[in-house]
UniProtKB/TrEMBL annotation:
The chain crosses the membrane at residues 26-45. Keywords: Membrane, Transmembrane, Transmembrane helix. It comes from Streptomyces mangrovisoli. It comes from the Bacteria. This is Hydrophobic protein.
Amino acid sequence: MAPLLVVLLLALILFGAGFALKALWWIAVVVLVVWLLGFLVRPAGTGGRRGRWYRW
């Protein structure tokens, strides 16, 4: 009975980790797209220089 529980627990942990990693990949792709779009839509700064689109 114990080996069966260990296998089921391992399968549950791996399934959860796989789902979390897939979600983290999608979040990383969205952040990358927003970061790249920031270079295209930067407002012009003082003196016609293109400034940063973020404040930090």
